[in-house]
Design a protein that fits this description.
Layout lengths: L1 H7 L6 E6 L6 H14 L4 E5 L4 H13 L4 E5 L6 E5 L2 H14 E5 L7 H12 L5 E5 L12 H19 L2 E6 L18 H6 L2 E7 L2 H10 L8 E8 L6 E8 L4 E3 L52
Parallel strand pairs: 1-7, 1-8, 2-5, 2-6, 6-7
Antiparallel strand pairs: 3-4, 8-9, 9-10, 10-11
């Protein structure tokens, strides 16, 4: 995703970014691609999910790590749902080795039922050298908050900003739109406290084009093929605001990519011949997302919501 990286300049340490979009538009898949890019650079990553179990997440992450030529699709008995299976034992072992070394996954089954528990877990991980943290998603931690939901969300984001700054790490937080079927066109369309977008350093809105949208584009642009996904930079401290990056999505390998820039990771290449497990050339671009070394930002004042949350 070099075009996205070139616009953002990477995900910077000491900052918090937010990924927003409707359900099914690829927020978690994009976050996992960031995780794989971090792992490829030997950056230890901690992922929290309020929706998936560790087994479910690992199934999809392994498939994404193996890529379109490294997996085959199996069907779950009873439900008929399809899921990826790494078909090459050597490749599977390499992925297992690198993910077990550089990633940790936590969910509600680990006792993470509150933001306080999550932060205790994050502090444990940061002392173990973890530098990239993913929260998927912030709303999962405020489900039972009632009329305190928005103030809790504001406090959570503020504390994550302070956490990122103090420990010089990057935190990626995923969030939803106000309406489940509406495209996020501006910061006001994000569900939750308005101060969340004010305090994070970067906001990326992901939108998957519908078949109708793609057909309309191709009719008005003869000879051109519509992209699958648009990522709009709604806010950035360094990139132009409202800049859009257009990406394709490989359903088989579950990877986003720009034309002529299909991502490839080091574990796909055998050390002896520089080709992937299926004989394809593999050249990982280590300038891809994330991370350039960023300057640590100042720690903000105490959150005004901390007294009431």
């Amino acid at each position: 995703m070099f075009c996205l990286d070139s616009e953002l300049g990477g995900l910077r340490y000491g900052e918090v970014s937010m990924g927003v979009g409707c359900s099914g538009h690829g927020k978690s898949t994009l976050a996992d691609q960031f995780v794989l890019a971090a792992v490829a650079q030997e950056i230890k990553t901690c992922v929290f999910s309020g929706e998936l179990s560790q087994a479910q997440h690992n199934t999809w992450l392994f498939g994404q790590a193996a890529g379109k030529d490294g997996i085959e699709w199996a069907q779950q008995k009873g439900t008929g749902k399809r899921f990826p299976v790494v078909k090459n034992d050597e490749l599977k072992a390499r992925i297992q080795d690198v993910l077990s070394t550089y990633t940790d996954f936590i969910d509600c089954d680990d006792g993470i039922l509150s933001f306080e528990a999550l932060m205790r877990c994050f502090y444990t991980h940061v002392r173990q050298g973890y530098k990239f943290f993913v929260v998927d998603n912030i709303m999962a931690l405020t489900i039972d908050a009632g009329d305190k939901e928005f103030s809790m969300q504001a406090d959570m984001i503020y504390r994550l900003v302070r956490f990122a700054a103090k420990w010089n790490v990057h935190v990626l937080v995923l969030a939803h739109p106000k309406k489940s079927d509406s495209e996020i066109k501006g910061l006001s369309d994000i569900y939750g406290a308005s101060k969340m977008a004010n305090w994070v350093h970067e906001v990326l809105a992901i939108h998957k084009f519908s078949p109708e949208e793609k057909e309309k584009y191709e009719k008005t642009h003869p000879g051109k093929q519509s992209a699958d996904t648009r990522i709009r930079i709604l806010k950035s401290r360094v990139a132009p605001s409202d800049k859009a990056v257009y990406l394709n999505f490989d359903k088989a390998g579950r990877r986003f990519y720009a034309a002529g820039d299909y991502p490839c990771f080091p574990w796909e290449a055998r050390p002896d011949d520089g080709v992937d497990a299926n004989g394809n050339g593999c050249d990982f671009n280590d300038n891809d997302l994330p991370f350039p070394v960023g300057e640590q930002v100042d720690i903000f004042e105490e959150s005004p919501h901390s007294q009431s949350a």
